[in-house]
Amino acid sequence: MSADRISGIFFLLLGLAMYFVVNPAYIETVEGGSLNPKTVPNIISVIIALCGGLLVVKPTHHEVGDLRNIARTGFYSLLLIAGLYAMSRFGFEYVAPVLAFAIMWFIGERRPFWLAFGAVGMPALIWFLVTQALGRALP
Hints:
Blueprint: H1 3-26, H2 39-57, H3 67-90, H4 92-106, H5 112-133
Helix pairs in contact: 1-2, 3-4, 4-5
């Protein structure tokens, strides 16, 4: 069993779980609008499942990478999970700038303009587009 097949099985099961369990439970049906709210999440779930299945059937011949990079990826994943939890408790406006800055800092970005733009500008743009332009609430 190669790492590709294991990750393929994971993404196949994740895509199927998203399509059959998570999306129906957490996507609300709304009146009006030109696009059903479940369309894009369902398409993405199917793509994830298909790509996972393809990786199971036809794995690559790559070798396992450096364990430091794998650990770093795990750290970033935990940071994102902690950030999402913090957003649900304290709100997007307070957590998103800190989370964006932390991610940018940990990946090695040190230029002040890009740190400021990523930590302040992008969360502000996301807030504006989602809450003002689309009329949706952020956590």
